[in-house]
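User: I'll paste a sequence; please echo it back and then give the predicted structure.

Assistant: Echoing your sequence first, then the prediction.
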Amino acid sequence: MGGDFAPKEVVAGAILARKEHGLEVALVGDRTAIEAELAQLGEAPGSIEVVHASEAIGMDEHPAQAVRAKKDASINVAMDMVKRGVAGAFVSAGSTGACMASALMTLGRIPGIERPALGTIAPFTDTGILVLDVGANADVKPSYMVQFAQMGAVYAERVLGIRNPRVALLNIGGEETKGNELVQEVFARLQKTDINFVGNIEGGEVHKDKADVIVTDGFTGNVAVKVTEGVADFIFRELRKALTSKQHYKLAAMVLRPAFLQMRDRMDPGTYGGVPLLGVNGVVLIAHGASDARAIKNTLHRAHDMASSGMLDSIRSALGRK
């Protein structure tokens, strides 16, 4: 029931995930509304499992308070399915804060993990670059960021298929002595881990394929991602404006349209699915609120990959407290 275009696009995305990837999906929310969308999309009754939830959490509600007050909210019901082992992964395009609160209250953290982290895929390489944290922790300690790096390395290896992934620390300079006290302390600690730490990386080098995982605090990461998305949107708008300004530009644009569409597809966050919440005791992905059916389908596909990759067991083994 979460997202700007729910439940229509969420239902359509679930259908695509089943048809294109053979995934078994349960849709959690208002049964009447979901079944109406299924019928409108030509799905036979019972073709996709529907789990009724009598409540939903709005984007304008206080996340933690709403999660506690609305026990039968679709986010809580779906998260409980993961806890009970009925589902292998949780996906929602609803409130990020509510998803995080429900995950922490229902699934809990992996023993030994101090704070969970949100990761996103930056589309600068064929596999994509994992950036974390991008919003779960505005204030951090050095130990948190070291664990972000370790969890990110496991995710890159298990889910993205990168052997011995390169891990870098986002900083204002490449030298070891650059940055504030927090970043310098994290740098020193990462040097002592067994991950493939390649040092600092500046914001202007993120796209140059120098790392597979980039670690930062949630405040900086969130700002960096949103600035990047804004710049990409600006470039595409200006390009569209320029290409439609003169007739001969329009003709050239028609010829180059497949290339432009390919570029747009690569830059679209929906291509890479939702952002993983790493460190909680279950597979949780949070899709963009503006996700369409294609983005939901890709998020469900990524959730399946995460659930079947052994990622959780690897994080428990590498970082968890016995």
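The chain has two domains: 8-113+279-319, 117-226+264-269. The mean pLDDT is 91.
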